[in-house]
Amino acid sequence: MTPLARIVLASASPRRLELLRSLGIEVIVAPAPFAEDDDADLAPIEMARRHARGKMAAVVRSFPDEVVVTADTVVDLDGRAFNKPRDATDAVRMLRALSGRTHRVHTAFVLAAEGRIVADDCETTAVRFHTLDDDEIAAYVATGEPMDKAGAYGIQGRGALLVERIEGDFYTVMGFPLARFARALRHAGYTLPEARSGAA
Fold first, then answer.
1. Whether residue 72 lies in the annotated active site
2. Is 198 domain-assigned?
3. Could you report the per-residue pLDDT of 15-24, keeping only the tens digit for each?
4. Domain boundaries, position 47
5. Which of 72, 121, 134, 148 is labelled catalytic?
6. Quick check: is 200 in a domain?
7. I want to staple 8 with a disulfide (CB 3.0 to 4.6 A). Which of 4, 68, 116, 127 is the partner?
8. Per residue in 140-157, is it b (16+ CB within 10 Å) or e — as a string?
9. Domain assignment present for 197
């Protein structure tokens, strides 16, 4: 097993950066030059997988000697994909649709080492929203938090107040399934850095 001290994150997501750093890994941020298209012919889970693979294809040759990870999150309501809202009106539309309903969140990731794909996986978590009134939705959208997040909410921020319950991995909803990723690393022959002991 090879200790993994550093990884290239081909994403501009501050949530993914935070989660990877929580594992004690040095993270190089190199967002992928890849356009996330809303492919209406794809099921939401396949859209997440396609986007994660597309991001990897766009960056992997630039880091032939590094471990690289890409990811994509798609919110799925009855087979309809909700990505990042275009504007505040679109965010309101999404949140009204999710109100009082259970949706699924798919986060796909692709892992490459030395230019070769070593993992291509996806985790899904079910999320149920409280029934939201228009004032609640308007107040949340006014915070600006929904604008860079799939489904127009962030479960790690004020969006947590919209959620009645979840079934599955919290970090998948946040944008990166840590446990599944750690298992993929081990399967590929890598170990995480040893945890540092706290000060006495």
1. yes
2. no
3. 999 999 999 9
4. 2-191
5. 72
6. no
7. 68
8. bbeeebbbebbbbbbbbe
9. no
